[in-house]
Amino acid sequence: MPEISRDEVAHLATLARIDLSDAELDHLAPQLSVILESVASISGVAGADVPPTSHPMPLTNVFREDVVVPGLTAEQALAMAPAAEEQRFAVPRILGDEQ
Amino acid sequence: MSDPTPDLTRTTAADLAAALAAGETTSVALTQAHLDRIAAVDGSVDAGVHAFLHVDTEGALAAAVASDERRAAGAPLHALDGVPVAVKDVLATTGLPTTCGSKILEGWIPPYDATVVRRLKDAGLPILGKTNMDEFAMGSSTEHSAYGPTRNPWDLERIPGGSGGGSAAAVAAFEAPLALGTDTGGSIRQPGAVTGTVGVKPTYGGVSRYGLVAMANSLDQVGPVTRTVLDAALLHELIGGHDPLDSTSVDQPVPGLVEAARQGATGDLSGLRVGVITELQGEGYQAGVLARFHESLELLTAAGAEVVEVSCPSFVHALATYYLVMPCEASSNLAKFDAMRYGLRVLPEGVDAPSAEQVMRATRDAGFGDEVKRRIILGTYALSSGYYDAYYGTAQRVRTLISRDFEAAFGRVDVLVSPTAPTTAFKLGEKLDDPLAMYLNDLATIPANLAGVPGISLPSGLADEDGLPAGFQVLAPAMADDRLYRVGAALEAALHDRWGGPLLDKVPALEGVAR
Question: Which InterPro entries match (chain A) (predicted)?
Answer without folding.
Answer: Asp/Glu-ADT_sf_sub_c (IPR036113), GatC (IPR003837)
